[in-house]
Protein backbone atom coordinates (compact mmCIF):
# COMPACT_ATOMS: atom_id res chain seq x y z
CA UNK A 1 0.00 0.00 0.00
CA UNK A 2 1.40 3.36 -1.00
CA UNK A 3 1.76 6.14 1.56
CA UNK A 4 -0.80 8.12 -0.42
CA UNK A 5 -3.48 5.47 0.11
CA UNK A 6 -2.62 4.59 3.69
CA UNK A 7 -5.57 5.13 6.07
CA UNK A 8 -5.28 7.98 8.51
CA UNK A 9 -4.52 7.16 12.13
CA UNK A 10 -7.61 6.93 14.37
CA UNK A 11 -8.87 10.09 16.01
CA UNK A 12 -8.35 9.67 19.78
CA UNK A 13 -11.70 11.42 20.32
CA UNK A 14 -13.62 9.19 17.87
CA UNK A 15 -11.48 6.09 17.45
CA UNK A 16 -13.90 4.18 15.20
CA UNK A 17 -15.03 7.29 13.30
CA UNK A 18 -18.64 6.71 14.31
CA UNK A 19 -19.57 10.32 13.73
CA UNK A 20 -18.48 9.95 10.11
CA UNK A 21 -21.60 7.80 9.61
CA UNK A 22 -23.94 10.66 10.58
CA UNK A 23 -26.07 12.49 8.08
CA UNK A 24 -25.52 16.21 7.62
CA UNK A 25 -28.67 16.92 9.65
CA UNK A 26 -27.56 14.62 12.48
CA UNK A 27 -24.11 16.20 12.55
CA UNK A 28 -25.68 19.65 12.70
CA UNK A 29 -27.84 18.62 15.68
CA UNK A 30 -24.76 17.19 17.41
CA UNK A 31 -22.80 20.39 16.86
CA UNK A 32 -25.68 22.65 17.88
CA UNK A 33 -26.36 20.83 21.16
CA UNK A 34 -22.65 20.53 21.94
CA UNK A 35 -22.10 24.25 21.40
CA UNK A 36 -25.11 25.09 23.61
CA UNK A 37 -23.84 22.73 26.31
CA UNK A 38 -20.35 24.19 26.21
CA UNK A 39 -21.65 27.75 26.33
CA UNK A 40 -24.62 27.55 28.70
CA UNK A 41 -24.18 24.46 30.87
CA UNK A 42 -20.60 23.34 31.33
CA UNK A 43 -19.31 26.55 32.99
CA UNK A 44 -21.75 26.34 35.87
CA UNK A 45 -22.45 22.65 36.36
CA UNK A 46 -19.73 22.06 38.95
CA UNK A 47 -21.16 24.79 41.17
CA UNK A 48 -24.70 23.49 40.69
CA UNK A 49 -23.59 20.01 41.69
CA UNK A 50 -21.74 21.30 44.75
CA UNK A 51 -24.74 23.38 45.83
CA UNK A 52 -27.19 20.56 45.12
CA UNK A 53 -29.42 22.72 42.98
CA UNK A 54 -30.52 23.52 39.46
CA UNK A 55 -30.80 27.31 39.32
CA UNK A 56 -33.60 28.84 37.27
CA UNK A 57 -35.16 25.59 36.00
CA UNK A 58 -37.84 27.53 34.13
CA UNK A 59 -35.24 29.57 32.31
CA UNK A 60 -33.41 26.34 31.51
CA UNK A 61 -36.63 24.77 30.21
CA UNK A 62 -37.22 27.72 27.89
CA UNK A 63 -33.62 27.52 26.69
CA UNK A 64 -34.02 23.80 25.98
CA UNK A 65 -37.28 24.59 24.19
CA UNK A 66 -35.60 27.18 22.01
CA UNK A 67 -32.84 24.67 21.28
CA UNK A 68 -35.55 22.25 20.13
CA UNK A 69 -34.65 19.21 22.25
CA UNK A 70 -37.83 18.87 24.33
CA UNK A 71 -39.87 16.05 22.83
CA UNK A 72 -37.72 16.41 19.70
CA UNK A 73 -38.40 12.80 18.65
CA UNK A 74 -42.19 13.27 18.70
CA UNK A 75 -44.30 14.32 15.72
CA UNK A 76 -46.58 17.36 15.61
CA UNK A 77 -47.87 19.61 18.42
CA UNK A 78 -44.79 21.84 18.19
CA UNK A 79 -42.33 18.93 18.38
CA UNK A 80 -39.43 18.63 15.95
CA UNK A 81 -40.09 15.08 14.71
CA UNK A 82 -36.36 14.29 14.66
CA UNK A 83 -35.01 10.79 14.12
CA UNK A 84 -33.98 8.44 16.89
CA UNK A 85 -30.26 8.92 16.28
CA UNK A 86 -30.62 12.70 16.33
CA UNK A 87 -32.39 12.49 19.68
CA UNK A 88 -29.71 10.11 20.94
CA UNK A 89 -26.97 12.52 19.92
CA UNK A 90 -28.67 15.30 21.88
CA UNK A 91 -28.78 13.05 24.95
CA UNK A 92 -25.12 12.14 24.47
CA UNK A 93 -24.00 15.76 24.32
CA UNK A 94 -26.09 16.79 27.34
CA UNK A 95 -24.91 13.92 29.53
CA UNK A 96 -21.33 14.66 28.54
CA UNK A 97 -21.90 17.73 30.73
CA UNK A 98 -23.99 16.09 33.48
CA UNK A 99 -26.49 13.25 33.84
CA UNK A 100 -28.91 15.56 35.64
CA UNK A 101 -29.21 17.83 32.61
CA UNK A 102 -29.93 14.93 30.29
CA UNK A 103 -32.48 13.69 32.84
CA UNK A 104 -34.28 17.04 32.71
CA UNK A 105 -34.74 16.66 28.95
CA UNK A 106 -35.52 12.92 29.09
CA UNK A 107 -38.21 13.24 31.75
CA UNK A 108 -39.85 16.13 29.91
CA UNK A 109 -39.77 14.56 26.45
CA UNK A 110 -39.55 10.79 26.79
CA UNK A 111 -41.73 10.36 29.88
CA UNK A 112 -44.24 13.17 30.42
CA UNK A 113 -44.62 14.34 26.80
CA UNK A 114 -44.37 10.85 25.33
CA UNK A 115 -47.13 9.59 27.65
CA UNK A 116 -49.47 12.39 26.60
CA UNK A 117 -48.49 12.01 22.93
CA UNK A 118 -48.98 8.22 22.92
CA UNK A 119 -51.98 7.82 25.22
CA UNK A 120 -53.62 11.24 25.51
CA UNK A 121 -56.74 12.73 23.94
CA UNK A 122 -56.48 15.43 21.31
CA UNK A 123 -57.54 17.96 23.91
CA UNK A 124 -54.76 16.83 26.28
CA UNK A 125 -52.20 16.90 23.49
CA UNK A 126 -53.17 20.35 22.28
CA UNK A 127 -53.34 21.72 25.82
CA UNK A 128 -49.92 20.52 26.97
CA UNK A 129 -47.56 19.39 24.22
CA UNK A 130 -46.91 22.72 22.42
CA UNK A 131 -46.22 24.45 25.74
CA UNK A 132 -43.98 21.64 26.92
CA UNK A 133 -42.06 21.53 23.63
CA UNK A 134 -41.38 25.25 23.98
CA UNK A 135 -40.33 24.87 27.62
CA UNK A 136 -43.21 27.07 28.74
CA UNK A 137 -44.57 24.22 30.86
CA UNK A 138 -42.55 21.61 32.76
CA UNK A 139 -43.77 18.06 33.21
CA UNK A 140 -42.93 15.16 35.48
CA UNK A 141 -43.76 11.44 35.51
CA UNK A 142 -45.12 9.78 38.63
CA UNK A 143 -44.68 6.00 38.62
CA UNK A 144 -42.11 4.99 41.26
CA UNK A 145 -43.25 4.86 44.87
CA UNK A 146 -41.40 4.61 48.20
CA UNK A 147 -42.14 0.88 48.39
CA UNK A 148 -42.51 0.18 44.68
CA UNK A 149 -39.46 0.60 42.48
CA UNK A 150 -38.56 -2.40 40.33
CA UNK A 151 -42.05 -3.83 40.96
CA UNK A 152 -44.39 -1.06 39.77
CA UNK A 153 -47.29 -3.49 39.70
CA UNK A 154 -47.36 -3.31 43.51
CA UNK A 155 -48.10 0.42 43.50
CA UNK A 156 -50.38 1.69 46.26
CA UNK A 157 -51.52 4.90 44.60
CA UNK A 158 -55.23 4.50 43.86
CA UNK A 159 -57.69 6.29 41.64
CA UNK A 160 -61.38 5.75 42.36
CA UNK A 161 -64.48 6.87 40.61
CA UNK A 162 -66.69 9.42 42.35
CA UNK A 163 -69.56 10.21 40.05
CA UNK A 164 -68.04 11.51 36.84
CA UNK A 165 -64.81 12.47 38.62
CA UNK A 166 -61.68 10.61 39.62
CA UNK A 167 -60.12 10.93 43.10
CA UNK A 168 -56.43 10.08 43.53
CA UNK A 169 -54.58 9.18 46.72
CA UNK A 170 -50.99 8.05 47.07
CA UNK A 171 -47.32 8.94 47.10
CA UNK A 172 -44.71 8.90 44.35
CA UNK A 173 -40.97 9.06 45.00
CA UNK A 174 -37.75 9.97 43.16
CA UNK A 175 -39.61 12.14 40.67
CA UNK A 176 -37.36 14.33 38.53
CA UNK A 177 -38.65 17.90 38.08
CA UNK A 178 -41.56 17.18 40.45
CA UNK A 179 -41.42 20.33 42.57
CA UNK A 180 -41.10 22.66 39.56
CA UNK A 181 -43.57 20.88 37.28
CA UNK A 182 -46.75 22.41 35.92
CA UNK A 183 -48.22 19.02 35.06
CA UNK A 184 -47.66 15.52 36.38
CA UNK A 185 -48.46 12.32 34.54
CA UNK A 186 -49.46 10.09 37.46
CA UNK A 187 -50.03 6.35 37.24
CA UNK A 188 -52.53 4.79 39.62
CA UNK A 189 -54.26 1.48 40.21
CA UNK A 190 -57.98 1.50 39.41
CA UNK A 191 -60.72 -1.09 39.27
CA UNK A 192 -59.98 -1.17 35.54
CA UNK A 193 -56.24 -1.75 35.98
CA UNK A 194 -53.37 0.74 35.96
CA UNK A 195 -54.29 4.03 34.26
CA UNK A 196 -52.47 7.28 33.62
CA UNK A 197 -53.80 10.69 34.66
CA UNK A 198 -52.86 14.22 33.60
CA UNK A 199 -52.66 16.18 36.86
CA UNK A 200 -52.09 19.95 36.85
CA UNK A 201 -49.86 20.53 39.85
CA UNK A 202 -52.00 23.39 41.16
CA UNK A 203 -54.87 20.94 41.77
CA UNK A 204 -55.97 20.96 45.43
CA UNK A 205 -54.53 18.01 47.34
CA UNK A 206 -51.38 17.78 45.20
CA UNK A 207 -48.04 18.57 46.84
CA UNK A 208 -44.42 18.10 45.80
CA UNK A 209 -41.54 18.02 48.27
CA UNK A 210 -37.95 18.39 47.09
CA UNK A 211 -35.56 15.59 48.11
CA UNK A 212 -32.35 16.94 49.65
CA UNK A 213 -29.05 15.46 50.87
CA UNK A 214 -28.44 13.49 47.67
CA UNK A 215 -24.91 12.32 46.94
CA UNK A 216 -25.63 11.74 43.26
CA UNK A 217 -27.48 13.60 40.49
CA UNK A 218 -27.17 16.76 42.55
CA UNK A 219 -27.59 19.15 39.60
CA UNK A 220 -31.15 17.91 39.24
CA UNK A 221 -34.43 18.44 41.06
CA UNK A 222 -35.78 15.26 42.66
CA UNK A 223 -39.11 15.21 44.46
CA UNK A 224 -41.72 13.30 46.37
CA UNK A 225 -45.28 13.70 45.08
CA UNK A 226 -48.12 13.46 47.60
CA UNK A 227 -51.72 13.14 46.42
CA UNK A 228 -54.41 13.45 49.05
CA UNK A 229 -57.94 13.41 47.71
CA UNK A 230 -56.89 14.95 44.39
CA UNK A 231 -60.14 15.37 42.48
CA UNK A 232 -59.94 15.36 38.70
CA UNK A 233 -62.62 15.55 36.04
CA UNK A 234 -63.34 12.43 34.05
CA UNK A 235 -61.36 13.67 31.07
CA UNK A 236 -58.12 13.78 33.09
CA UNK A 237 -57.46 10.09 32.41
CA UNK A 238 -55.20 9.25 29.49
CA UNK A 239 -57.78 7.46 27.32
CA UNK A 240 -55.25 5.28 25.52
CA UNK A 241 -53.59 3.99 28.67
CA UNK A 242 -54.46 0.48 29.75
CA UNK A 243 -52.51 -1.68 32.15
CA UNK A 244 -48.92 -1.60 33.32
CA UNK A 245 -47.62 -1.87 29.77
CA UNK A 246 -48.49 1.79 29.19
CA UNK A 247 -46.06 3.33 31.72
CA UNK A 248 -43.46 0.68 30.91
CA UNK A 249 -43.50 1.73 27.26
CA UNK A 250 -42.74 5.28 28.42
CA UNK A 251 -39.83 4.01 30.49
CA UNK A 252 -38.49 2.28 27.40
CA UNK A 253 -38.33 5.64 25.64
CA UNK A 254 -36.41 7.14 28.54
CA UNK A 255 -34.04 4.16 28.65
CA UNK A 256 -33.18 4.77 25.03
CA UNK A 257 -31.92 8.23 25.98
CA UNK A 258 -29.81 6.65 28.72
CA UNK A 259 -28.19 4.29 26.18
CA UNK A 260 -26.79 7.38 24.43
CA UNK A 261 -26.33 9.51 27.54
CA UNK A 262 -24.01 6.95 29.10
CA UNK A 263 -21.76 7.27 26.05
CA UNK A 264 -21.54 11.00 26.70
CA UNK A 265 -20.58 10.53 30.34
CA UNK A 266 -17.97 7.93 29.40
CA UNK A 267 -16.55 10.13 26.65
CA UNK A 268 -16.29 13.10 29.01
CA UNK A 269 -14.34 11.05 31.55
CA UNK A 270 -12.04 9.59 28.91
CA UNK A 271 -11.39 12.97 27.27
CA UNK A 272 -10.58 14.60 30.60
CA UNK A 273 -8.25 11.75 31.48
CA UNK A 274 -6.42 11.78 28.15
CA UNK A 275 -5.77 15.50 28.56
CA UNK A 276 -4.67 15.04 32.17
CA UNK A 277 -2.38 12.07 31.43
CA UNK A 278 -0.55 13.88 28.65
CA UNK A 279 0.10 16.98 30.74
CA UNK A 280 0.60 15.62 34.25
CA UNK A 281 4.28 14.87 34.83
CA UNK A 282 5.72 12.45 37.38
CA UNK A 283 9.16 10.81 37.53
CA UNK A 284 10.46 13.02 34.77
CA UNK A 285 7.74 12.60 32.16
CA UNK A 286 3.99 12.59 31.46
CA UNK A 287 2.06 9.80 33.15
CA UNK A 288 0.68 8.95 29.69
CA UNK A 289 4.06 7.33 29.04
CA UNK A 290 3.63 4.70 31.76
CA UNK A 291 2.48 1.24 30.70
CA UNK A 292 -0.22 0.94 33.34
CA UNK A 293 -1.66 4.31 32.32
CA UNK A 294 -1.73 3.32 28.66
CA UNK A 295 -3.49 0.06 29.52
CA UNK A 296 -6.17 1.95 31.41
CA UNK A 297 -6.56 4.41 28.55
CA UNK A 298 -6.84 1.54 26.07
CA UNK A 299 -9.61 -0.03 28.16
CA UNK A 300 -11.38 3.33 28.26
CA UNK A 301 -11.14 3.78 24.48
CA UNK A 302 -12.59 0.28 24.05
CA UNK A 303 -15.52 0.93 26.37
CA UNK A 304 -16.34 4.36 24.93
CA UNK A 305 -16.30 3.15 21.34
CA UNK A 306 -18.13 -0.12 21.92
CA UNK A 307 -20.82 1.76 23.84
CA UNK A 308 -21.04 4.23 20.96
CA UNK A 309 -21.44 1.38 18.46
CA UNK A 310 -24.21 -0.12 20.60
CA UNK A 311 -26.07 3.19 20.83
CA UNK A 312 -25.77 3.82 17.10
CA UNK A 313 -27.00 0.35 16.15
CA UNK A 314 -29.98 0.53 18.49
CA UNK A 315 -30.79 3.99 17.16
CA UNK A 316 -30.78 2.77 13.57
CA UNK A 317 -32.96 -0.21 14.54
CA UNK A 318 -35.37 2.22 16.19
CA UNK A 319 -35.55 4.30 13.03
CA UNK A 320 -36.29 1.15 11.03
CA UNK A 321 -39.09 0.17 13.42
CA UNK A 322 -37.13 -2.95 14.35
CA UNK A 323 -36.04 -2.06 17.88
CA UNK A 324 -37.39 -4.44 20.53
CA UNK A 325 -37.49 -3.46 24.20
CA UNK A 326 -34.82 -6.12 24.84
CA UNK A 327 -32.46 -4.27 22.52
CA UNK A 328 -32.81 -1.22 24.74
CA UNK A 329 -32.33 -3.34 27.87
CA UNK A 330 -29.07 -4.62 26.39
CA UNK A 331 -28.01 -1.06 25.58
CA UNK A 332 -28.72 0.30 29.05
CA UNK A 333 -27.22 -2.73 30.77
CA UNK A 334 -24.01 -2.65 28.75
CA UNK A 335 -23.47 1.05 28.21
CA UNK A 336 -24.02 2.14 31.79
CA UNK A 337 -21.63 -0.55 33.02
CA UNK A 338 -19.07 0.58 30.43
CA UNK A 339 -19.44 4.22 31.53
CA UNK A 340 -18.99 3.21 35.16
CA UNK A 341 -15.75 1.39 34.33
CA UNK A 342 -14.45 4.42 32.42
CA UNK A 343 -15.39 6.80 35.24
CA UNK A 344 -13.67 4.66 37.89
CA UNK A 345 -10.50 4.41 35.81
CA UNK A 346 -10.61 8.15 35.16
CA UNK A 347 -10.92 8.86 38.87
CA UNK A 348 -7.91 6.66 39.54
CA UNK A 349 -5.70 8.25 36.89
CA UNK A 350 -6.48 11.75 38.14
CA UNK A 351 -5.08 10.82 41.55
CA UNK A 352 -6.06 13.19 44.35
CA UNK A 353 -7.23 15.75 41.79
CA UNK A 354 -9.92 13.31 40.75
CA UNK A 355 -11.98 13.89 43.88
CA UNK A 356 -12.38 17.62 43.24
CA UNK A 357 -14.95 19.47 41.17
CA UNK A 358 -12.13 21.07 39.19
CA UNK A 359 -12.34 17.92 37.08
CA UNK A 360 -15.58 16.22 35.96
CA UNK A 361 -14.69 12.59 36.64
CA UNK A 362 -15.96 11.99 40.17
CA UNK A 363 -19.12 13.97 39.48
CA UNK A 364 -19.82 11.65 36.55
CA UNK A 365 -18.83 8.62 38.62
CA UNK A 366 -21.36 9.28 41.37
CA UNK A 367 -24.05 10.36 38.86
CA UNK A 368 -23.69 7.01 37.10
CA UNK A 369 -24.60 5.27 40.35
CA UNK A 370 -28.06 6.76 39.91
CA UNK A 371 -28.15 6.11 36.17
CA UNK A 372 -27.42 2.44 36.87
CA UNK A 373 -30.50 2.26 39.09
CA UNK A 374 -33.22 4.37 37.51
CA UNK A 375 -35.37 3.28 34.55
CA UNK A 376 -34.67 -0.31 35.58
CA UNK A 377 -31.76 -1.57 37.68
CA UNK A 378 -28.97 -3.54 36.05
CA UNK A 379 -30.42 -6.69 37.66
CA UNK A 380 -33.80 -6.12 36.02
CA UNK A 381 -32.23 -5.56 32.61
CA UNK A 382 -30.01 -8.62 33.03
CA UNK A 383 -33.11 -10.72 33.69
CA UNK A 384 -34.86 -9.19 30.69
CA UNK A 385 -31.94 -10.17 28.48
CA UNK A 386 -31.81 -13.61 30.10
CA UNK A 387 -35.49 -14.15 29.37
CA UNK A 388 -34.99 -13.01 25.77
CA UNK A 389 -32.21 -15.53 25.08
CA UNK A 390 -33.59 -18.49 27.07
CA UNK A 391 -37.32 -18.06 26.64
CA UNK A 392 -37.69 -18.64 30.39
CA UNK A 393 -38.75 -15.86 32.76
CA UNK A 394 -36.89 -15.51 36.05
CA UNK A 395 -39.32 -12.85 37.26
CA UNK A 396 -41.86 -13.79 39.89
TrEMBL record:
Belongs to the acyl-CoA dehydrogenase family. Residues 242-389 form the Acyl-CoA dehydrogenase/oxidase C-terminal domain. One of its GO terms (biological process) is fatty acid beta-oxidation using acyl-CoA dehydrogenase. Keywords: FAD, Flavoprotein, Oxidoreductase, Transit peptide. It comes from the Bacteria. It is an enzyme of class 1 (oxidoreductase). Its EC number is 1.3.8.6. PANTHER family: GLUTARYL-COA DEHYDROGENASE, MITOCHONDRIAL (PTHR42807:SF1). Pathway: Amino-acid metabolism; lysine degradation; Amino-acid metabolism; tryptophan metabolism. GO terms for molecular function: fatty-acyl-CoA binding; flavin adenine dinucleotide binding; glutaryl-CoA dehydrogenase activity. Residues 24-136 form the Acyl-CoA dehydrogenase/oxidase N-terminal domain. Its cofactor is FAD. This is glutaryl-CoA dehydrogenase (ETF). It comes from Streptomonospora alba.
